Automatic annotation (TrEMBL), chain A:
Belongs to the bacterial solute-binding protein 1 family. Keywords: Periplasm, Plasmid, Signal, Transport. It holds the Pfam family SBP_bac_1. GO terms for cellular component: ATP-binding cassette (ABC) transporter complex, substrate-binding subunit-containing. Residues 1-25 form the signal peptide. The keyword Transport applies. InterPro entries: SBP (IPR006059). This is Extracellular solute-binding protein. One of its GO terms (molecular function) is maltose binding. GO terms for biological process: maltodextrin transmembrane transport; maltose transport.
TrEMBL record, chain B:
Keywords: Cell inner membrane, Cell membrane, Membrane, Plasmid, Transmembrane, Transmembrane helix, Transport. It comes from the Bacteria. It is a multi-pass membrane protein. Part of the ABC transporter complex UgpBAEC involved in sn-glycerol-3-phosphate (G3P) import. Probably responsible for the translocation of the substrate across the membrane. GO terms for biological process: transmembrane transport. The keyword Cell inner membrane applies. This is sn-glycerol-3-phosphate transport system permease protein UgpE. It comes from Martelella lutilitoris. Residues 74-263 form the ABC transmembrane type-1 domain. The complex is composed of two ATP-binding proteins (UgpC), two transmembrane proteins (UgpA and UgpE) and a solute-binding protein (UgpB). Pfam families: BPD_transp_1 (PF00528). The keyword Transmembrane applies. Belongs to the binding-protein-dependent transport system permease family.
UniProtKB/TrEMBL annotation, chain C:
This is Sugar ABC transporter permease. The chain crosses the membrane at residues 12-31, 73-95, 107-126, 168-187, 208-225, 260-280. It is a multi-pass membrane protein. It comes from Martelella lutilitoris. InterPro entries: ABC_transporter_permease (IPR051393), MetI-like (IPR000515), MetI-like_sf (IPR035906). Its main location: membrane. It holds the Pfam family BPD_transp_1.
Amino acid sequence: MLKSILKGSAATLIASGIMAGAASAEEIRIYFNAGHGYDTYLEVFEEFEADNPGWTVAFERYQWPDLRTKLVADFAAGNPPDLVAEPGAWVPEFAQQGLLYNLDDLAARDRAEFDYPGDWQDASVEKNTVDGSLYGVQIHLTCATLLYNVDMLKEAGYDNPPTNWAEFREIAKATTRNGVFGFAPNAVWAYSMPWVMQNGGRYYDPETGKIAFGSEAAAEGVQFLSDLIHEDRSAPVPVTGADYEGPQRLFTAGRAAMIITGPWDINPIRTGNPDLNWAVAPSLKEVEQATIQGGVSLMIPKDAQYPEQAWDLIKRLTAVDVEVATSLQYSMTMPRKSWLNDPEVQADPILGQFGACLPYSRDVTLELRQAGKYNPAIDEVLNGAIDEVLFANEPAAEVLAAAEDEANAILANE
Amino acid sequence: MARKDNHTTASKLLIYPLLAFFVLMAVLPFLYMVSLSLQSDAEMFSGQVVVIPESLQFSNYVTIWEKAPFARFMLNSLIVAGTITLLHVLFDPLIGYVFAKMEFPGKRLMFVSLLATLMIPFFIRLIPLYVMTAEMGLLNTYPGLILPFAMSAFGIFLMRQFIMPIPDDLVAAARLDGASEFRIFIDIILPQLKPAIATLALLTFVFQFNEFIWPLVAVSSESMRPITTGLTLFNQEFFTQWNLTAVGGMLLFLPCFLLFVIMQRYFVQSVMLSGMK
Amino acid sequence: MTYKTRRTLTAYAFLSPAIVYFLIYFFWPIAIEFWASFRSGQPLIGDSAFVGLKNYAHILNDRLAIKAIKATLIYAIGSVVFTLVLALGLSALLVGPVRARNGIRAILFFPYIISFVISALMWRAILDPYTGLLNAALAKVGLPQQFWLVDPDTAIWTLIAVSVWKDLGYAVLIYIAAIQGIPAHLYEAARMDGARRHHLFRDITLPLLMPTTLFLAVVIMITSLQEMALPYLMTQGGPANATRLYSLHVYETAFQGLNIGYASALSFAMFMLILLITWAQFKLLHRDIRHV
């Protein structure tokens, strides 16, 4: 009903626009993740079309790696879209190459009605700032934290989830049975980083300008994870692959008591096993409380045809009411401070818990990207090293120290 | 026709289990795909091994058409892969004949250059091809999707290798009779090439029907997508909608399978003609 | 006009559309990338500068590239050898008096016609050590769990198996088409000379299949040396980079690393290697065909 009214009014507006000679058939092109074609966003596009007679939104959806391939080809052809969603690492990269539109002026102009960056959590602003200028606006902000099977923990005699490593290890052991694991880790290297960061380690040290994942603290974190797998046998060897589903599937099947994941797994778990009694816990605290952060930003290419309209769409897509509606409907966490303070969000036990971990979550490679030295080859080196520890049970200290040297050699070579 | 001697019961005991093994392995992922395509969302996310779904969700086969314009995707795939296949069937045998049976200066160099084009991965040519296609104004059009694959060294090489065993004296005799090269090709070579051309058509179609990366970059509207890139619309950021993806797999499978069944006639026919049973 | 000139002109007339096409759609883009391989910065996308052979020299310092070359050679040789041996054996069986051979042939070709993307994902799901079909089956009969794709030592062989699985039906198809193209009179002549059945295979079929064998060996070798989709879909190059095949490394260098100059250099280095291997294959397998 609403849609048809919107469409009807759009038609009249177009007609009147043509009469006035103002409107022409213009198309604004958007690249988005295929998983994020939420109804709430589609409604925003319809509203935009209704408010801007003669304009259509070409909403193109791709998987992240595909989107990236297409975008790179578009930059080469000088034919980029007007608005692009990115999975949290591309803004500094493309901005440093002069391929993105500087948003400072637009943000300053509209601050009264649209408080960017004021209403955004600091971490999400930092990610989109390059050399002091804004080049992107965060639309989703996520973090991975602990999910646990309430019944399995109770059965093993624990009423509360673990808060530090010792408790975690104990509970993982106690909940492991034949064919059931206390903890199911994810094979992607970034999921080892919460352990590194909780122990005070980091990926890159901006003070020395060097890669730091070979430190003792970092190695201890990865070794702890490896010991769960190889010594305690309370965790399975993670399965490599292109997807992130492995641990979630074990958790949903009741074959893993704990996993670490983000809000995107909420719906698959609820669908796969509606009876599962599970909850979300704050991230563990060893030396410090920390976890990994993810999310999506919107950016406008420098050669975009319609940056003004793209900015208008950014404002509409990140409006607080859109954020709240989207997060409640699709279990997604959002970057705006007023979203986190929204009573409906606070009242949702699972969303609220994920929201609570956002402030202490960290974007692992951010510091390196901001230094303009990010190179995916370094991720590959770290990925290979973590694999060697987790799959082949090599000692973390040696492997990571060697990987750090190799990564620093790559940095020096650039 | 003494041939029973080496097909003893013993060798049969060995042959049939062996064939059964290969047949089983060949269909295993297919059967799994069929099973997945009939699973409910709950079964798909359950993390349990589901072989036979509890209730067959034929509705998945309906859902997919509602979620995206799959009829259009199918049409796009058929137009693009069909045209490319036709172009290959028209050009490759003739060019293969030139390389197999004709002598001319520069033949070696040209053949080596032709083979060399197979040795650079497609994605390396991707950006220049994209820029070129954009400049021609062919992005998001059928010609833009078809042209980069209109010819390939693979098909020409395949045809050349099939034409080579055809006895030279047949060709030489026709040349002595004053037949033009084109006539020789049509009257002598082509009739022998039926199974080879059927193979070429099938392989080309299957390959193009499954092409992913070029339509990914060259198409910019949903209505021009082929099935392959259309399928990626279902996958979420961090998990795959397995059941619908499997339905898509069935959609990709069926036209290729149909073509195979049609082409199989040519293989069976020529077995009877060659009489080597 | 002599016969020779006329024949040359005819040949070129037949080839002219192909020559024009390949110049535009293959050699021009390849030339552009070749140009990029001597540049640093962002050739094709942004600013870049000529650096001579630096990109090529860097390959020797790229540990992942060296590791990838080794894995790729194992993968390619394994795929070619296993595919050809099995395909030849199966084709010989399937042109003989075997029950339901058309059906068997059709089923063997299934792996080639199921979308490769889908079948790679199916295999990954089937081979998953914890939630996969095969391990569930092994557990049922009391056999230990297998870590096919998870163990760095077995992962590459698992990929080879999947690649053989995929190409087998296609190689069988081509072999059978080739066997059927062999003129019947050759067999009849030999039979009249009193040749026995398995001699017919060895003396007539096998030599006449050499062009086909060469074709399959060259094509499967070339495509395997450039394989990217399989590790991309099944392992993302892991575990511990054991299945990081060369093309995957190049693709990630180009599109994830945005290092297009270096990625081009990597490609042309691989090109030289493939050229060398293909040349060797022609030397080994390319024989004159003598008709009986």
